[in-house]
Design brief:
The complex is a heterodimer of chains A (about 190) and B (about 550). Helices cover about 40% and strands about 10% of the residues of chain A. Chain A is α/β, with parallel strands linked by helices. Chain B has two domains: about 150 residues, NADH:ubiquinone oxidoreductase Nqo5 subunit (Beta Polymerase, domain 2), CATH 3.30.460; about 325 residues, Cytochrome-c3 Hydrogenase, chain B (Orthogonal Bundle), CATH 1.10.645.10. The chains are: A alpha/beta (about 190), B alpha+beta (about 550).
Chain lengths: ~190, ~550
């Protein structure tokens, strides 16, 4: 993939523009940059897979695609130690509260990648009586990754886009995505984790 | 078959017979239990393997079709039991004849609401206890407002119900406990790295010893069978990639064969050879991944990197021909989707050259390891009788001494002409199940070696009608998947979509037998036993 094409992401550009509209304080801005540099280079995934996409995630961890190159290889089995969850596979009615609970248990700041057609919209199973039509009904999603299943290269691309998003975040002052998530959670209450 | 029919007609004068692919016996519910006992215990009949129970809704009546196979001479028979009561449909249970029936009947209850009298566990299986309606019935209301996406934790009960017939013929509802009142129950899953997906075991333990496991599934139940009823026949094929995603070629093969059988299509020799080659390549890839993930579960993480090396090589071969790494969608009615890639023969030969070295390496690295021996030998021993009764097919069944390879018992495609051995071990423990898969990889390589130099010329896909309409009737086809015997049952009324499409997954019995195998073992062995059975959860749930 040529670098120009990789950088071509209108959404992130508009996000950066929105965040920098009012300018940034020199000291606070530098601190933000330092924190973001560290965080965006060691994103730890949660081992969470329900179906086919999970096997491609296994391939991503093995020698050929080797996600350890980017600092993502520390897949945690407990959500309390992970930074993001890659929702790899179909989410059905019975799984929905469980997934929401896992999301609630992730340590802040947390991110979600909707991996594959099923997680985005229900995919080939959209007509089913027991499938959730897109996980964005349940949790806020940061990156949508299409494919059935997406290739490991596509997964690398999606996590890279996530790390780009992390690089422009603000922790000290300004409107940041945390507030948007608060809005989302206020409109999507869950009783699964009190 | 004729003398079986005579024999049953003599013993059960009420029975009627329907001709078809194999003999179908129709029996009233009152005589069903007695017939089941005769079918299994009679030395001449000896139908000891319950392949599946197909729940059916013919609109005017509900019922079940039982597919039975004999392990002596591999003949098949089907039995049809129906009931006209839609409000309170009841059929007698046969859980005391075949152990697997308990679970199969629960599945039918979940989808059709048919109550099995005397079955000790009549709970919902894949759907929650608050689910309204029975989804596979034809009059099911799929309005999403009736069953919305749940926002709170699922309501659960520690009790189950059983409908017991008393001596005077009345049916009583009994509430039973799943666990003993003082049991200490540990929850394992659905989010657990060693359950191979989203499966849940509620485990009653006494100290470190397992007393009972309540296997709880449905966390990836996607309702494939119901979706297929609304699709045309060629459209149903692509779901086969997404059940057991390692056996996608086998599952496509099964479904294509059942449709071709119904349509009377003869496919070209080239297409058959291509299908068999793909099946066997997929089997090697699947067993490689089994070795990797199984060893990783036991703590030997490095093994994954060794085995995925071969798997990636096979995926490259398939990608060149099929265009995808996992969901190939390669088989189609009449043959295969496209011709082999020009590099196919060269690539496969390269694979065959490195494979023996790799298998030797796996043996040296893991099988000979003292820790592996200690953790696998004599752990989770399954006897041959139990393997048959619990319908544990595939490598796990063969490790217990049951020669259940469909490629040998009911040869399909060109398997009858090929020279390969059916590997059967008698130990039945986790070590035998592991070693058997390595031995099977060698046999698969042997099949590929025989075929790779003589792929016949010809068309890869024969002409089929643009609109596929199956004639009226029912068909059943089994193939040997990577994890066991996979079956497809199709019933058609003559239209463009099936009346009923039942998929018979090999992994449901595998997960079901975990309870039987782990009782009395230590909780650490649960990981070994579950891993060595190698079930795939989306295949259980469909």
């Amino acid at each position: 993939m040529p670098y120009e094409a990789w950088k071509d992401n209108e959404y992130i550009e508009s996000l950066v523009k929105e965040l920098q509209e009012n300018g940034t304080n020199v000291i606070v801005g530098s601190l933000d940059k330092l924190i973001n540099w560290g965080r965006s280079n060691s994103i730890w995934p949660l081992t969470f897979a329900t179906s086919c996409c999970g096997i491609e995630f296994v391939s991503l961890g093995a020698a050929r695609y080797d996600m350890a190159r980017f600092g993502w290889e520390v897949a945690r089995s407990s959500p309390r130690q992970a930074d993001f969850m890659m929702v790899a596979g179909t989410i059905v009615h019975r799984m929905a509260p469980v997934m929401r609970r896992l999301y609630d248990q992730l340590a802040e700041p947390k991110y979600v990648i909707a991996c594959g057609g099923c997680a985005i919209s229900g995919g080939p199973f959209r007509k089913s009586y027991h499938v959730v039509k897109g996980i964005d009904e349940i949790v806020p999603v940061d990156v949508y990754l299409p494919g059935c299943p997406p290739r490991p290269e596509a997964m690398i691309y999606s996590i890279m886009q996530l790390s780009r998003k992390m690089k422009v975040e603000k922790f000290f002052g300004g409107v940041n995505r945390q507030e948007k998530i608060k809005d989302f959670l206020a409109t999507h209450p869950s009783e699964s984790c009190d | 078959m004729a003398n079986i029919q005579e024999k049953i007609a003599k013993l059960f004068p009420e029975a009627t017979f329907e001709e078809g692919e194999n003999l179908m016996v129709c029996i009233p519910d009152s005589k069903w239990h007695a017939l089941a006992k005769t079918l299994k215990e009679d030395a001449e009949l000896h139908f000891d393997f319950l392949v599946t129970i197909v729940g059916m809704d013919w609109t005017d009546k509900l019922g079940c079709i039982y597919y039975l196979q004999s392990t002596v001479d591999n003949k098949m028979i089907s039995v049809k039991v129906t009931t006209e009561d839609r409000e309170n449909p009841m059929i007698h249970s046969v859980h005391d004849v075949w152990a697997i029936a308990t679970t199969f009947e629960r599945e039918v209850y979940d989808f059709f609401g048919i109550i099995f009298v005397n079955n000790p566990d009549m709970r919902r299986m894949f759907l929650s206890i608050d689910w309204k309606g029975y989804p596979l019935r034809k009059d099911y209301d799929d309005n999403p407002e009736l069953n919305p996406v749940p926002k709170e934790n699922e309501r659960q009960e520690d009790t189950t119900v059983s409908y017991v017939e008393t001596e005077d013929g009345k049916i009583e509802k009994k509430v039973l406990n799943v666990f003993e009142p003082n049991d200490f129950v540990v929850n394992i899953g659905p989010q657990h790295p060693a359950t191979h997906g989203v499966l849940r075991f509620r485990t009653a333990v006494d100290g470190e010893t397992i007393k009972k496991i309540d296997f709880y599934s449905g966390y990836i139940h996607r309702g494939i069978e119901k979706i297929c009823e609304g699709l045309t026949y060629p459209q149903t094929l692509h779901f086969m990639d997404r059940m057991d995603y390692f056996s996608s070629h086998h599952y496509h093969h099964a479904m294509c064969m059942v449709y071709e059988k119904a349509l009377g299509i003869e496919i070209s020799r080239r297409a058959q050879v291509i299908r068999v080659l793909m099946d066997e390549l997929a089997r090697i890839a699947s067993h490689c991944l089994f070795m990797g993930t199984f060893c990783m579960d036991l703590g030997a993480t490095t093994m994954l990197f060794y085995t995925l090396r071969v798997r990636e090589q096979i995926l490259d071969i398939m990608e060149k021909t099929c265009g995808a790494r996992m969901t190939f969608n390669y088989g189609c009615i009449g043959g295969v989707m496209q011709d082999l890639h020009e590099d196919f023969v060269k690539d496969v030969k390269e694979l065959l050259a490195v494979l023996p070295k790799n298998i030797k390496e796996y043996n040296e690295l893991f099988i000979g390891n003292v820790i592996a021996k200690g953790r696998l030998e004599n752990v989770g021993t399954l006897t041959r009788e139990d393997a048959i009764s619990y319908a544990v097919t595939g490598p796990s069944g063969r490790a217990s001494g049951w020669a259940c390879d469909v490629r040998k018992t009911n040869p399909y495609s060109i398997y009858g002409e090929l020279d390969f051995e059916e590997v059967v071990y008698t130990e039945g423990d986790s070590m035998a199940r592991t070693k058997l898969r390595l031995a099977e990889m060698e046999q698969s390589a042997r099949i590929i070696e025989q075929l790779i130099d003589n792929i016949p010329e010809g068309e890869y896909c024969v002409k089929v009608p643009k609109v596929v309409k199956l004639p009226e009737g029912r068909w059943f086809q089994m193939v040997e998947g990577c994890r066991g015997a996979f079956g497809v049952y199709v019933e058609s009324t003559g239209g463009t979509s099936p009346l009923r499409l039942k998929l018979v997954p090999p992994c449901l019995p595998l997960a079901n037998v975990v309870d039987h195998l782990t009782r009395g073992n230590k909780i650490a062995d649960l990981i070994t036993i579950g891993g060595s059975l190698d079930y795939i959860v989306p295949d259980i749930d469909r």
